[in-house]
Amino acid sequence: MASTAAEATAEQQQVNGNGDQKTRHSEVGHKSLLKSDDLYQYILETSVYPREPESMKELREVTAKHPWNLMTTSADEGQFLNMLLKLIGAKKTMEIGVYTGYSLLATALAIPEDGTVRDPASCSSYATNRRFSFSPDLGTDEETLLLFWQILAMDINRDNYELGLPCIEKAGVAHKIDFREGPALPVLDQLLQDEANHGSFDFVFVDADKDNYLNYHERLMKLVKMGGLIGYDNTLWNGSVVLPADAPMRKYIRYYRDFVLELNKALAADDRVEICQLPVGDGVTLCRRVK
């Protein structure tokens, strides 16, 4: 993630130690660790963009104009998440860290239209606050509201989410999303107070504050079902995980690097999960709960 437009520009102009690559790929959300930009472009043009839903393309283009666009999920990772959710048959999911909602839209498009029952009082509250929109082909009665909230999405910045919300609404999947603005930990603690939430989530995607990943992990291990998946994004952290501690790094990369290293070490030693770390985007680690 980049916190300013200046950092995003610096990211694209980075020169590595060997001087091999003088510019970084200009595609929005590009975090690929591939050494060849041409190879990454080949993947996008051959396999990703031709199959990218129009709503996701529109959201990607909207996000490209935002000064923090490097925070977004890359198009190839969005395609990967969409396929993964279909393969595991996920119906109830959670996303911690939303930004403009590219990965959230990939999720909403992947999961089927049979949702999870929610609290009627909560439904009324969210309808009043317009925290979601109705699909044109759905009713607005309480029974419909109860049926279709399938994704719990949390982010500290509602403005970024609402930037992408028109694309999500246009895709007809906004009714699946229960968006909560604010820190995720209090929401997770509240969920854990109800035994009915334990082991109830099929999939969780975490792309948020790296210094809290391990705090999220301990809570999510109780909320995700046996055999369910947790995906942690940015686990290769711009390739910094293999750099010497005194190597030149941008400030935000250096600040979070130790937290990412700690997470990777902890996940590798956690016998409650099976793990698979993939060099997709900026690195994503999948954890399958087995205990």
Characterize this entry briefly:
The chain has 291 residues and is an alpha/beta fold.
Tell me about this structure.
By secondary structure, the protein is of the alpha/beta class. The chain has helices at residues 5-12, 37-48, 54-64, 75-88, 102-110, 120-128, 142-148, 158-170, 184-192, 213-223, 251-269, and strands at 93-96, 151-155, 177-181, 201-206, 224-233, 273-278, 284-289. It has a 7-stranded mixed beta sheet, with helices on both faces. Helix 4 (75-88) packs parallel to helix 5. The longest helix is centred in the last third of the chain and has 19 residues, at 251-269. The two termini are 32 Å apart.
Which labels suit this protein?
291 residues; alpha/beta; 7-stranded mixed beta sheet; 7 strands; 42% helix; 14% strand; globular; disordered N terminus; Cation-dep_OMT
